[in-house]
C-alpha cells in the first residue's frame, strides 16, 4: 500500500474530472468515476481517504450517493461540489453529518487545494481519535477485569476469616479477648462488604437482565433473614407489606442487590436512642410497574448530603461503616432494570428510599 | 440439632482453613459427627471408586468448592454425574464458593445432583434448612 492519499471524485461531466486530475495528480492518488456504481467499485478496491461528489447527476444526487456509502465507508471525508441552486440540499446534508464541506462550481483551484488539505487534516484527527478511543476502551476493560478478579481473590481469604470468627464465637470467647474479636469482626465485615459491592457492580454491568417472575415476598424474606437470625439485631423490627395486583417480571438478582443495599443502610444507620427501631419494606406492584419503599426511623440524612448520596464513593463517615459504593450500585442496578430510585429524609426522624421499576411481563 | 436421618458429610476443598472451619461448624451445630475431608477432587472421586458399596447404602452430602486447582468443582461434578444411579441417588451436592458468580449459579443449577450453591463462609442455618427440606 502506498503512503499517498487516495481521493475519489464522482462527476457525470468528464471535463470536470479531467481538470480535477490535472490539478491534484502530482500530490495524490486520484480516482474518478462518472456514475455511482463505478465509484462504489473504486471504494471497494482502493484506499480512499477523501471523496468529492458532484451534487447534480442524472441518476443519484451527490447527497444520495454519500448516504449510500456512509455505512460502509464512515471514515472517508465527504465533500460535495455544487452550484448555488442546490444550496438547500447542501445545508441539509451538512446538518445531517453526511457532508464535511461543500465547494461551489465552478471551483477555484486554490480554494479546492485548501479544501483538500483541511479534509486531510480532519481525516488524520478522526483517525487518531478513533485509535485513542479504542485504546481507552481496551484499557478500561482491562482495568475492570482486574478489579473484578482482584475482588474475587480478596473475597476468598475474607470468607475464611469470617468462618474462623464464626467458629470462635460458637465455641465461646472469654471476656478480655471478646472485645478484640469484635473489632476484627467489624473490620472484616467492612472489607467483605467492599469486595462484595465491587463484584456486584461488575456483575450488574456485565450480566444480562432477565425477565423472570418475581416474588417480592421471597426476596424480602431472604434479605431480612440475615438480620433477624442474629441476636445483635433483635432490637430492630423488620416489617414487610407486599400488595401484588398482578404477576411481576424483572430480574431477581438485581432487585435483591438493590434491596440488600437499602436494608443494610437502614440497619447501619438505625437510631439506638429510639425505644423502637424499625425497617419497613413495602411493595405495590401492578401490570405496569412496582414501587418499592424502604423506610426506617434511623438517624436520617442531612439536607446537605442528601443530593449526593447516590454518587460513587459517597460515605456518611460519622458512623464509619459505609464503603461508599452501596447506593451507587443500587442506582446503577435500578437503571439496568429501566427504573428510577430516589431518597427523602429528615434528620433525627428517618429516611425513605423509593425505587420504581417497570413490569417486563 | 441433628437431622433425623444419618447423613455422612464429605468436604472437598483445597483451602485447609475452610475445611477446618466447616468441619468445626458442622460438629458444633450437631448436624452430624460423620465428616470426611479431601483437599482435592481427585481424592474424593478415588474414595467413591474404592468404596462403592458404602456410597450406595447411606445418605451422603457433599460440600464441593468450585474454585480448586487441578480438577475444579464443575469438573468434579461432571465425573460425579457419570456414577451409577444407585450412588447418585444417595448423593446431595452443595457447591461452595467464596464469591458467587452469577453464571456459576446458573451453571451449577443445571446439574441434577446440585441442591444449592452456598456462599462462604458456610451458613449452617441455611444448609440445615435445605437438608431438612430434603430428608424430613
Characterize the overall form of chain B: globular
CATH superfamily assignment of the largest domain in chain A?
Answer: Histidine kinase-like ATPase, C-terminal domain
* DSSP summary, beta strand count of chain A: 12
Number of helices of chain B: 7
Instruction: Give the CATH architecture of chain B.
Output: 3-Layer(aba) Sandwich
- Overall pLDDT of chain A: 89
* N- to C-terminal distance of chain B: 13 Å
Elements of chain B, N to C (H/E): EHEHHEHHEHEH
The CATH architecture term of the largest domain in chain A is: 2-Layer Sandwich
**CATH domain fold name of the largest domain in chain A:** Heat Shock Protein 90
- Low-confidence parts of chain A lasting 5 or more residues at pLDDT below 50? none
Average pLDDT level of chain B: 91
Structure commentary:
Chain A is an alpha/beta fold. Chain A folds into two domains: 6-107, Rossmann fold (3-Layer(aba) Sandwich); 207-358, 2-Layer Sandwich (Heat Shock Protein 90), CATH 3.30.565.10. Chain A is 48% helix and 20% strand. Chain A contains nine helices and twelve strands. Chain A has helices spanning 14-24, 36-45, 62-70, 87-95, 109-171, 175-206, 216-228, 252-268, 326-336; strands at 6-10, 29-33, 50-54, 77-82, 101-104, 212-213, 236-244, 249-250, 277-285, 289-296, 340-346, 350-358. In chain A, strands 2-1-3-4-5 form a five-stranded parallel sheet, with helices on both faces. In chain A, strand 11 and strand 12 form a beta hairpin. In chain A, helix 5 runs antiparallel to helix 6, helix 6 packs parallel to helix 9 and helix 7 packs parallel to helix 8. The radius of gyration of chain A is 32 Å and the shape is elongated. In chain A, 32% of the residues are buried. The mean pLDDT of chain A is 89. Chain B is α/β, with parallel strands linked by helices and 136 residues long. Chain B has one domain: Response regulator (Rossmann fold, 3-Layer(aba) Sandwich). Chain B has seven helices and five strands; from the N terminus they run βαβααβααβαβα. Chain B has a five-stranded parallel sheet. The model of chain B has no long low-confidence stretch (mean pLDDT 91). The interface between A and B is medium-sized, with 21 and 20 residues.
Amino acid at each position: 500500500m502506498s503512503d499517498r492519499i487516495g481521493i475519489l471524485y464522482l462527476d457525470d461531466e468528464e471535463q470536470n474530472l479531467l481538470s480535477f486530475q490535472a490539478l491534484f495528480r502530482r500530490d495524490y492518488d486520484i480516482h474518478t468515476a462518472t456514475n455511482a456504481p463505478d465509484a462504489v467499485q473504486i471504494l471497494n478496491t482502493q484506499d480512499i481517504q477523501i471523496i468529492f461528489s458532484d451534487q447534480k447527476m442524472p441518476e443519484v444526487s451527490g447527497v444520495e450517493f454519500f448516504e449510500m456509502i456512509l455505512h460502509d465507508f464512515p471514515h472517508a471525508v465527504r465533500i460535495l461540489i455544487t452550484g448555488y441552486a442546490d444550496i438547500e440540499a447542501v445545508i441539509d446534508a451538512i446538518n445531517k453529518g453526511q457532508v464535511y464541506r461543500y465547494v461551489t462550481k465552478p471551483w477555484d483551484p486554490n480554494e479546492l487545494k485548501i479544501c483538500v488539505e483541511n479534509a486531510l487534516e480532519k481525516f488524520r484527527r478522526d483517525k487518531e481519535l478513533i485509535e485513542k478511543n479504542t485504546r481507552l476502551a481496551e484499557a478500561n476493560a482491562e482495568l475492570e477485569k482486574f478489579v473484578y478478579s482482584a475482588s474475587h481473590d480478596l473475597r476468598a481469604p475474607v470468607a475464611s476469616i469470617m468462618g474462623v470468627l464464626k467458629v470462635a464465637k460458637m465455641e465461646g470467647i472469654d471476656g478480655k479477648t471478646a472485645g478484640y474479636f469484635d473489632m476484627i469482626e467489624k473490620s472484616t465485615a467492612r472489607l467483605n462488604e467492599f469486595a462484595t459491592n465491587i463484584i456486584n457492580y461488575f456483575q450488574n454491568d456485565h450480566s444480562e437482565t432477565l425477565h423472570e417472575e418475581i416474588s417480592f415476598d421471597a426476596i424480602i424474606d431472604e434479605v431480612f433473614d440475615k438480620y433477624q437470625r442474629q441476636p445483635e439485631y433483635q432490637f430492630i423490627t423488620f416489617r414487610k407489606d407486599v400488595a401484588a395486583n398482578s404477576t411481576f417480571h424483572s430480574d431477581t438478582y438485581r432487585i435483591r442487590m438493590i434491596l440488600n443495599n437499602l436494608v443494610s443502610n437502614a440497619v447501619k444507620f438505625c437510631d439506638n436512642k429510639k425505644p423502637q427501631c424499625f425497617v419497613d419494606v413495602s411493595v405495590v406492584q401492578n401490570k405496569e410497574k412496582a414501587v418499592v419503599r424502604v423506610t426506617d426511623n434511623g438517624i436520617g440524612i442531612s439536607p446537605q448530603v442528601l443530593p449526593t448520596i447516590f454518587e460513587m464513593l459517597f460515605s456518611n463517615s460519622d458512623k464509619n461503616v459505609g464503603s461508599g459504593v452501596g447506593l451507587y450500585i443500587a442506582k446503577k442496578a435500578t437503571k439496568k432494570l429501566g427504573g428510577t430510585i430516589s431518597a427523602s429524609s429528615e434528620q433525627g426522624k428517618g429516611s425513605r428510599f423509593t425505587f420504581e421499576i417497570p413490569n417486563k411481563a | 440439632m441433628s437431622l433425623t436421618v444419618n447423613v455422612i458429610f464429605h468436604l472437598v476443598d483445597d483451602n485447609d482453613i475452610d475445611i477446618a472451619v466447616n468441619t468445626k461448624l458442622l460438629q458444633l451445630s450437631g448436624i452430624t459427627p460423620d465428616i470426611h475431608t479431601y483437599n482435592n477432587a481427585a481424592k474424593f472421586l478415588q474414595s467413591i471408586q474404592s468404596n462403592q458399596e458404602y456410597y450406595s447404602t447411606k445418605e451422603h452430602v457433599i460440600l464441593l468448592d468450585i474454585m480448586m486447582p487441578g480438577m475444579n468443582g464443575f469438573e468434579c461434578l461432571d465425573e460425579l454425574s457419570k456414577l451409577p444411579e444407585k450412588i447418585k441417588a444417595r448423593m446431595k451436592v452443595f457447591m461452595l464458593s467464596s464469591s458467587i458468580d452469577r453464571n456459576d449459579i446458573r451453571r451449577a443449577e443445571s446439574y441434577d445432583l446440585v441442591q444449592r450453591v452456598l456462599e462462604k463462609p458456610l451458613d449452617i442455618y441455611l444448609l440445615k434448612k435445605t437438608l431438612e427440606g430434603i430428608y424430613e
